[in-house]
Amino acid sequence: MERETVRTYEDLNCYKLCKSLRNRIRQITSTFNPNEKFRLTDQMIRCSRSVTNNIAEGYGRFHFKENAQFCRQSRGSLYELLDHVSIAFEEELINETECLNLENEIKNCIRVLNGYIKYLTTAKY
User: Is the N or the C terminus of the chain less surrounded, counting Cβ atoms within 10 Å?
Assistant: First the structure.
C-alpha cells in the first residue's frame, strides 16, 4: 500500500473525518426547532467548527508539540459535541438511531485524532 502524501491539513485523515462530521452536524441542526437556534443549534455548530479550526491552526504551528496541543483542544470539542448530541436526544430533537450514529461518528473522529496526537507527541524534529 502506498503512503499518502500530506501537503496541507486538508490531507490529514483526522481533518477529513471531522470535516464530514461538521457538515453532518450542520445538516442535522437545520431540522431543529427554531427555538433552539441560539441555544443548542448554535452550540453544536460552533463546537463542530472548533474541531476543524484547531486541527488547521495546529498544523500551521512550527513544533509538533504545539500542533498536538491544538489537536487536544479539538478532542475536547469532540467530547463537548458528544454531550450536545445527548442533549439533542433528551430534548427529542433527534431520534435514538440518529443519536447512536452521531455518537459513533464522533467516537471514530476521536480515535483517529488520538492516533494523530500520538504521532505528533512521538515525532522527532
Answer: N
